[in-house]
Amino acid sequence: MILELSKKLSITSLVITHDMFSVFNIADHVAMLDNGKVCFEGNAQTLQHTNDSRVSEFISRFQPDARMQ
Predict the structure, then answer these.
(1) Do 40 and 55 meet the contact criterion of CB atoms below 8 Å apart?
(2) Are 26 and 2 in contact (CB under 8 A)?
(3) Distance (Å, rounded) from C-alpha 6 to C-alpha 21?
(4) Residue ranges of the domains in the chain?
(5) Exposed (0-12), middle (13-18) or buried (19+): which is 38, by Cβ within 10 Å?
(6) What is the DSSP letter of 64?
(7) Residues 6+ apart with CB under 8 A from 56
(8) For residues 26-38, average pLDDT
């Protein structure tokens, strides 16, 4: 619905979420906070390939294999 409305109305949406599945499906730009400070800023593809261990550890929880554990 967010993507549909964004395209239909030509609007920008700010979504705050821990749901990385949604991030990878709807985000053009991502900022991630750790202890109140920005630890990542960029697009979702760059997010998936970051070398920042805090970011990698967090998003690894949302890989298909991680849900099985």
Answers:
(1) yes
(2) yes
(3) 18
(4) 2-67
(5) exposed
(6) H
(7) 50
(8) 93
pLDDT at 42: 95
Q: Tell me the torsion sign for CA atoms 49, 54, 59, 64.
A: positive
Amino acid, res. 38: V
Which residues sit opposite 32 in a β-bridge? Answer: 40
In whole angstroms, give the CA distance from residue 14 to residue 17: 10
The answer on pLDDT for 66 being more than 60 is no
- d(CA 47, CA 40) in angstroms, rounded, equals 8
Residues 6+ apart with CB under 8 A from 12: 6
